[in-house]
Amino acid sequence: MAYKLMIENVITPLMPVTMTPFYVTLKITNIGDSVFPGGILTVFSVQSQSASRSVSGSKLPKIPPLKSGESLSLEPQSFSMFDGGVTRLLVELKANDDAPVDLFQNLEYNMGEKWLNLFKIVDQEQLKIISLLQKIVELLERGR
After folding, report:
1. Which pTM does this prediction carry?
2. CA geometry: angle at 74 spanning 16 and 67, to 5°?
């Protein structure tokens, strides 16, 4: 029998920018029928095509026991990436009793032992270009 935990994440700010710290908060909910005995995150990382940033082993949060239906929001963790684009958030978790843990994206999507979510990091240079283009459009509109 595997424990069933649903993981949700909140990224702040919603659209992270390269070279600027952003925060990831995980919410873990026991969606199984039995009590989850507690455990520890063994992997909590953000990975782009060229780099990976992980929460260090000593800072990996411990998860207390969770009754069926009970949720826990973990302390936000800070990350910063050097390149923009699609980025993976990867989480793995181990139960205190070493029983298997199935990690869910939502109530119906079982990801197995490795949970991941994709999000985008905006490149600072792209932001500068967009800002300059917006200023040009504003100036052109004023000149009409």
Report:
1. 0.83
2. 140
Which two three-digit tokens encode residue 93?
Answer: 């978790």
Model confidence pLDDT, tens digit, residues 79-98 = 999 888 899 999 999 999 99
Question: CA-CA distances (angstroms) from residue 123 to 4, 13, 16, 99, 128?
Answer: 36, 14, 9, 41, 9
Q: 132 Cβ partners below 8 Å, 6+ apart?
A: none
Q: Please choose, from the candidates 24, 55, 125, 130, the residue with its C-alpha nearest in 3D space to the C-alpha of residue 84.
A: 125
Q: Residue 90 has what pLDDT?
A: 95
User: Residue 24 in contact with residue 72, Cβ under 8 Å?
Assistant: no
Decide if 38 contacts 144 (C-beta within 8 A). Answer: no
- Other residues' Cβ atoms within 10 Å of the Cβ of residue 38: 13
Q: What is the pLDDT of residue 25?
A: 96
Domains, the chain, ranges and CATH? 3-142 (2.60.40.10)
CB neighbour list of residue 16: distance below 8 Å, 6 or more residues apart = 22, 79, 81, 119, 121, 122
